[in-house]
Here is the input.
Amino acid sequence: MAETFPVPTMPVPPVGVVGLGQLGGSLAAALMAAGRQVSGWDVDPAAREAAAARGVTITRELSGVVVLAVPLPAMATALDGLTADPDATVTDLGSVKGPVLQALGPALGTRYVGGHPMCGTERSGHAAVDPALFTGARWAVCVEPDTDLTRWLRVAEVALAAGAEVVPATAAEHDAAVAAISHVPHLLAAALARAAADAGPLALALAAGSFRDGTRVIGSDPAFVTAMVEGNAGPTAEALTRVRAHLDRPWAELVEGGHAVVTRQDGRRTVRVPLERAALLSLGRSGGAVTRRLAAFLECWVPGNG
Ligand SMILES: NC(=O)c1ccc[n+]([C@@H]2O[C@H](COP(=O)([O-])OP(=O)(O)OC[C@H]3O[C@@H](n4cnc5c(N)ncnc54)[C@H](O)[C@@H]3O)[C@@H](O)[C@H]2O)c1
Here is the structure.
């Protein structure tokens, strides 16, 4: 990470958000609070009205960085009926990256840079908008072999402006990682809930903190969860196989190993990384993130002390 490639200076582009529900509406609100110019569109008039009331310019004409914040099944057609500037950079917030890259990549080429903020709640729709949703969250921004790094930086700067930290990863790396930390937990939460119900009303009556924590995410809209796990079926099945193998270990060993992972205290070491593909991917693979753009570098952190 020692090479020094200059980070290009660019005017701050406007942001157009398609889909003004929980994620898109929250992003629009966070960006406006950060002084960015934001416009947007939603098929639902109520979502448009709510966003307009927060100051978002409602329009079908989008430019700068266009953010697709629609449900996964609507990603491929989200730009239909809208006018996007031919030079606009297009990103999305979808929870799975490989299928969206396959759907949008052929038409958009290097104008498309995938993204996924690791935040959100089990609520949905414009009533769930929270301008602080992205504060301190990790936000994956995809780096592929043909990624235009100037466009990557434009997307990364949207994430940073919303208060997030940027984690570079390929779509395939992202999908394998989120299978383990998000998609499997949704399935496990569903299985726990069903198994507790099978145990009978007494069990559900006694359910308290550990049951609530273990099942919280399955309160999400089932259509959202199904689109997510089915859209990432291969990596999710592989991650489930690893979970099954752990469940077959002696329980004391399993508990000890899991406890060690969640109580480990990794420090943070600040590093500077050039805007270069290998350096960005190396940062993401090490568990680090971009926190700030400096004149000639990206300021980042990696796990470690010192
Ligand atoms: N909810 C989460 O926890 C979470 C977290 C990270 C990423 N995501 C991703 O973010 C995206 C949005 O999720 P959300 O939770 O904000 O959903 P949401 O249901 O709250 O909002 C989606 C919005 O998109 C609108 N919409 C649907 N089709 C449209 C179209 N063709 N054109 C314009 N608007 C359209 C809907 O009317 C709705 O307002 C999804 O792709 C999801 O995978 C969700």
Q: What stands out?
A: The pocket of nicotinamide-adenine-dinucleotide is lined by residues 18-24, 41-44, 47, 69-72, 74, 78, 93-95, 116-117, 120, 124-126 (CB under 6 Å). The first strand starts at residue 15 and ends at 18. The chain has a mean pLDDT of 95. DSSP finds eleven helices and 13 strands in the chain.
